[in-house]
Amino acid sequence: MQEEAMEDLVADVFARACTSRPVLENVAGKWGILALAALSGDTYRFNALRRRVDGISEKMLAQTLQALERDGLVRRDVRATIPPRVEYSLTEVGKRIAAKLLELIELVEDAMPAVREAQSAYDGGR
Amino acid sequence: MQEEAMEDLVADVFARACTSRPVLENVAGKWGILALAALSGDTYRFNALRRRVDGISEKMLAQTLQALERDGLVRRDVRATIPPRVEYSLTEVGKRIAAKLLELIELVEDAMPAVREAQSAYDGGR
User: Fold this and answer.
1) Domain named HTH hxlR-type: which ranges (chains A, B) (predicted)?
2) Are A38 and A100 in contact (CB under 8 A)?
3) Residue ranges in B1-126 assigned as alpha helix (H)
């Protein structure tokens, strides 16, 4: 990424009214990030996804999936079986963003020893 | 990234009690992501950073910076000038994570035409 292009970009998302901000929040928010990361590995039915994303409430998962579906990142397919089967998967755009989120998660995981050390120093020095 | 390594990783952050989860939330949360992205370009004093991250309250910026400082991603330097000058910058770990966040922001910006189209279709079809 060119330095100049980066400046333009950063200027955009920093603006309060920028339309990309709420999308970034859906994607990078506490539950959005985990739902997208889970769906990058597999297609899920609602309850299976809820078990995968440990700690999420039914209501919060429904809201998260709805926001991501509206943004065109998650696809909701209703299979005409008896009873009907609802499956969630990623769109092409969703896959690209989920792959980047996995890189971010990996980076944070790798940084955890340094982070824990910093936290101890910070808490000890107060 | 190997498929297997990815599985391990995902399994970790998905666990409710995983220590990396709150760090991921600090980093990828609404304000953390913008503060880190801003600091990846420059060192900032508090008020200048607040102007840069349009819409953030004083209290929320203070909390965001404190959490990121505790995680060892942001450094707070007090310069012994009169009056003292407090400057915020990224640590090495913070720089690596901020660079990844900029990649994510760029991806979301690039996806915005597709996202807007999906939003219109979703809202129109309801």
Assistant:
1) 18-116
2) no
3) 3-14, 20-28, 30-41, 46-52, 58-70, 92-124
Q: What Rg value do the Cα atoms of chain A yield, rounded?
A: 18
Residue A15 lies in a domain: no
Q: Would you call B29 an interface residue with chain A, using a CB distance cutoff of 8 Å?
A: yes
Containing A28, the helix (H) or strand (E) segment is helix A20-28
Mean pLDDT across A27-48: 93
Average pLDDT over residues B29-54: 93
Determine, for residues A112 and B16 on separate chains, whether the beta-carbon distance falls below 8 Å: no
What is the CATH number for A103? 1.10.10.10
Chain-centroid distance, C-alpha B71: 12
A111 contacts on B by Cβ (under 8 Å): 23, 93, 96-97
Fill in the DSSP letter of residue A53: S
pLDDT in tens, A40-72: 989 999 999 999 998 999 999 999 999 999 999
Q: Does the distance separating the beta carbons of A23 and B108 come in below 8 Å?
A: yes
Task: State the residue range of the domain holding B41.
Answer: 3-124
| Residue given tokens 């950063």 in the structure block | A10
The domain total for chain A is 1
Closest residue in B to A15 (Cα) is B54
